[in-house]
Amino acid sequence: MPGNGAYIGFMIVTGFLSACFGVVTVWRLYDYIQAYRFEREKYYPLFGLIPLRLITVIYLVGILVIAGTSTILFGVF
Amino acid sequence: MEEERDPMSDSVDNPIDSLVDNPVDDLVDNTDRNFRGQQRLETVTCFSRKHPIVLLRSFLIMFGMMLAASVGIYFILTMETEVFSGGLKAMAVLFFVGITLTHHLFFLRMFHYFLEIMIITNYRVIDLRKSVFLHDGKEIIDLHEIQDIKKNQDGLLPNLLNYGDIKIATASISTAMTLHTLPRPEYYLNQINQTKRHYILYRRHQKLNPELTRPYAASFPGTETG
């Protein structure tokens, strides 16, 4: 059975890859949506009230929270 | 979410009036103004994303998997075992990887929702099927090619939440376009019809008086909806 360090290392690598993927995703998304120059107030909000910027922030923060939580949990237990 | 507008109120008393005796120099150059590939005299009549109902399935899957993984991790951590054994650790790792994947897939689907749009201009109908990584499709039908437009709004949910499909048929059977899960399909059906009518009027007038007719720009003010 691998030791606790191996699990922590695996979670750190997974979290790092996940964060990189998240950054690339947001970068590509903004690159694409800048090609559509519609009225910002109508194009950007989801359901007319949730701005895209907030959604991307939630996405990136979520990645960090999941990566951090998993690493800390394996560190504690 | 979208600015309500009666499609029929857009009609100009006599659209031909706005097409003649205007110098070409007065026209604004719209090249790439609202989207890549937009032509010089092309104006956006309206645009739309799909109905938010398309996100419901992804949301339910995400919610279910997150809940299952969180419950699994909770049980592993609160088990009455003195040692957090290797098997349990491997299982916890799997749960965390599952949560990470679910998180990414859900948000990718949400970003996909932002990129997949339908645009009606004074020349054509454009259906963009783009996603962040996997798809990059574009389907275009010129207004003069449109022969028949059908609205399909079958079922309880489509009628309750007011969404449906619009099928645009052309003379050629192979080039039919279906705009899936559009919100307010009746509105967009009328928009396409009305824009097509203006375009046909313009072309007819151009044939009769080619020297009087300026290049075609929208004969009614465009609106953009999301």
Largest sheet of chain B, described in full? 4 strands, antiparallel
Number of strands of chain A: 0
Structural class of chain B: alpha+beta
Strand content of chain B: 15-25%
Apparent shape of chain B = elongated
Which chain pair has the greatest contact?
Answer: A-B, 41 and 37 residues
Which residue ranges of chain B are poorly predicted, with pLDDT under 50 across at least 5 consecutive positions? 1-25, 219-226
**What do the pLDDT scores of chain A average to?**
83
Mean pLDDT of chain B: 78
Task: Indicate the structural class of chain A.
Answer: mainly alpha
Relative helix content of chain B: 25-40%
- How far is it from the N-terminal to the C-terminal residue of chain A, by CA? 16 Å
In DSSP terms (H or I, runs of 4 or more residues), the helix count of chain A works out at: 3
Molecular structure report:
The complex is a heterodimer of chains A (77) and B (226). In chain A, 77% of the residues lie in helices and 0% in strands. Chain A has helices spanning 4-33, 40-43, 52-76. In chain A, α1 runs antiparallel to α3. The model of chain A has no long low-confidence stretch (mean pLDDT 83). In chain B, a hairpin with a 5-residue loop joins β3 (124-130) and β4 (136-142). Chain B contains 4 helices and 7 strands, in the order βααββββαββα. Chain B starts with 43 loop residues before the first strand and ends in an 18-residue tail after the last helix. In chain B, α1 (56-77) packs antiparallel against α2. Chains A and B meet through α1 and α3 of A and α2 of B.
